Amino acid sequence: MARVLLTGAAGGVGRFLRDGLPGRGWELRLFDRAPIPEAPDAVVADLRDDAALDAALDGVDAVVHLAGISVEAPFDDILGSNIDGTYRLFAAARRAGVTRIVYASSNHAVGFEPVGGLARVDTPPRPDTYYGLSKVFGEGLGRLYHDRFGLDVVCIRIGSCFERPTSRRQLATWLSPRDAVGLFDACLRAPAPGYVVTFGISANTRGWYDIEPARKLGYEPQDDSEPYAAEILAGPPESDADARYLGGHFTEVPLGEHMR
């Protein structure tokens, strides 16, 4: 059984993967700066603790890197957690001889791209926040580590990964928990993917993103947001930003301001 270090294991997507990946044959080693009560063996440390990273990566075959701030925040916070932390994770993985990293990027890396047709992975970076900018950095770091050191790196531009969609925008961007497990499993399992960027959503009837690169890795989404559409569409109208840009309201939040 291959061993995978799962960073950010205490978060929402981390919980979905904790629940689902072991059933796909992966042995998880959990890492987060927050304790996980139901997983007392999890490594509780900061990504900037090189010694803790080195110990956590000992004997690991691959990394799923979710850790970091997942919304807009002051630049210094983003710099420490998402940029420096991601760099330190990649560097430690290379020291440990890990050959594959699956990196949780975000649709906010292209958040200022207008809605229209299917957004492709070759859409130029258009970050909507410092958070989105940090994801552009992570994708670039993955490209560097692949080209220079030969690591297999798959960057997943996750849309909205929750139990269910709750807004009109999420009818397009939703990634169900079941499909999140299937997607990360495919990215871990695909033979010699090289460097790949893909969007991560379910098979949504109203989807905005081209997921063909993920399908080529073996991803077969099972869910669609459409069963929730009638209830959501009967609710309040969406904001102009949510209808206009891939990043939705992230394009309007004050730059560097804490989001809840």
Folded structure, characterized:
The longest helix has 21 residues, at 75-95. Helix 1 (12-20) packs across helix 6 (177-189), helix 2 crosses helix 3 and helix 3 (75-95) runs parallel beside helix 4 (130-149). 35% of the residues lie in helices and 14% in strands. It is globular and about 50 Å long. The chain has a single domain (3-251), classed as NAD(P)-binding Rossmann-like Domain (Rossmann fold), CATH 3.40.50.720. The chain has 9 helices and 7 strands, in the order βαββαβαβαβααβααα. It has a 7-stranded parallel beta sheet with strand order 3-2-1-4-5-6-7, with helices on both faces. It has helices spanning 12-20, 50-57, 75-95, 130-149, 168-173, 177-189, 212-216, 229-233, 240-244, and strands spanning 3-7, 27-32, 43-44, 62-65, 100-106, 152-158, 195-200. The protein is of the alpha/beta class. It starts with a strand and ends in a 16-residue tail after the last helix.
Detail the topology: elements first, then pairings:
Blueprint lengths: L2 E5 L4 H9 L6 E6 L10 E2 L5 H8 L4 E4 L9 H21 L4 E7 L23 H20 L2 E7 L9 H6 L3 H13 L5 E6 L11 H5 L12 H5 L6 H5 L16
Parallel strand pairs: 1-2, 1-4, 2-3, 4-5, 5-6, 6-7
Helix pairs in contact: 1-6, 2-3, 3-4
